[in-house]
Amino acid sequence: MTPHRQTDPAAPSLEQARRQIARYGLTADPQAVLVAARLMAAGARIGQAGEVHFGRFGLSTGRYRLLADLEDHGGEKSPSQLATSLGVSRATVTGLVDGLEREGLVARRPSTDDGRGNVVILTARGADRLRELAPEHFARMQSMVAGLSVEERTVFLDLLARIVAGIEALAED
Amino acid sequence: MTPHRQTDPAAPSLEQARRQIARYGLTADPQAVLVAARLMAAGARIGQAGEVHFGRFGLSTGRYRLLADLEDHGGEKSPSQLATSLGVSRATVTGLVDGLEREGLVARRPSTDDGRGNVVILTARGADRLRELAPEHFARMQSMVAGLSVEERTVFLDLLARIVAGIEALAED
DNA sequence: TATCAGTGCTTAGGGAGCTAACTATTGGGT
DNA sequence: ACCCAATAGTTAGCTCCCTAAGCACTGATA
After folding, report:
1. Residues facing A119 on adjacent strands
2. One domain for residues A79 and A158
3. Is A166's Cβ below 8 Å from some Cβ in B?
4. Among candidate residues B20, B43, B81, the one with its CA nearest the CA of residue A130
5. Which UniProt key words apply to this protein (chains A, B) (predicted)?
């Protein structure tokens, strides 16, 4: 359960960026590259921290998101809908539901109006689990951004959204 | 190779945050929770986009980082050092090196001054690969943050660093 | 009405990362 | 000089997520 401890690993420096760009005789802006690299490093760290966080409650990030999404929709949703709203593949939903079902936090029922379909249901145990973890979960989420003032958070939200829009530049084509 | 396409999946809304907090009668600040949730969502997306990006060159994020780190250190480093500087476990380095060695981008040599140790060496093919992908890599990194002005990037860098410092709040204890 | 493309879900297989446990070697304390 | 804890690396086994391929069912079209 104790995850790999990182002193401050992948925090690339401006110097590194500059050196790499120079090595290949490119003309990229080192600061821009640095921002992108730092963001990718931060993304990885947040992901790992999230797993540790949810691991405390016997869940993973994916499983928590599925449970929370289910609760937000009256505790009942098809795997396809879940895949869409969580932004993962249907195969991934199958795996997440398998795990959650094994622990009795959700249940599968055949759909009444589509012979192919399933419905995933949040069980009482699942709802309990969400209720139990909520206080600590939200408290930790809050303290994660406690280093920023309200105004700074607003700015950050704006800048982050614009970068997220730029992510497709990495993946696109 | 074509990854799962997401319209705009896990972009939680302020309303959702508010509703969840209210459901459990908590007193958390919805905006703060929103920032944390958005950041986690963004982290996941960036991670996936990174895999797509490096997948184009027959690499993964981890493998690229290992190659780049190697090059930054004269093309020679021990697995333990790599684990430390990449911020991953030694077991993960073993796996990454296995893969890179299979493709001839890296080679293992027994250490001369420590009978237990290995040295991982960047091969000519490995250096070539880095050189080939550099132009596109840096161009895409740059365009990822192209939506921000230089000043905004500086602000973002500062805010991000302060949040990264707060990540331990999620994982700590 | 018979067919067939599309949709819903699962299975199979792969890569990344982790922890825990094991082997081999080193090096400091007695 | 010897022993034993610490260190280097690997292996085994887990979770998450993915793609690709398969099966079951639906529904529009000829």
Report:
1. A109
2. yes
3. yes
4. B20
5. DNA-binding, Transcription, Transcription regulation
Residues spanned by the domain of A83: 58-171
How many Å from the N-terminal Cα to the C-terminal Cα in chain B?
Answer: 39
Q: List chain B residues with CB under 8 Å of A153.
A: 31-32, 35
Instruction: Say whether residue B40 is in contact with chain A using an 8 A CB cutoff.
Output: yes
Tokens of B10: 């896990």
d(CA A142, CA B27): 11
Q: Would the CB atoms of A20 and B140 count as touching at under 8 Å?
A: no
Residues B64 and B98 occupy one common structural domain? yes
Hey, is B27 helix, strand or coil? coil
Cβ-Cβ contacts under 8 Å, B86 against chain A: 9-10
| Helix (H/G/I), strand (E/B), else coil: B100 | helix
Task: Categorize the per-residue pLDDT at B158 as very low, low, confident or very high, splitting at 50, 70 and 90.
Answer: very high
pLDDT tens per residue, range A97-154: 999 999 999 999 998 888 788 899 999 999 999 999 999 999 999 988 999 999 999 9
The gap from C-alpha B89 to its chain's centroid, in whole angstroms, comes to 14
**B111 and B158 housed in the same domain:** yes
Nearest residue to B35 (alpha-carbon basis) of A129, A143, A85: A143
Mutate to test the interface with A, among B16, B26, B40, B122 (most CBs of A within 10 A): B40
Q: Given an 8 Å threshold on Cβ–Cβ distance, is B142 in contact with A84? A: no
The CATH number linked to B100 is 1.10.10.10
Are residues B66 and B44 part of one domain?
no
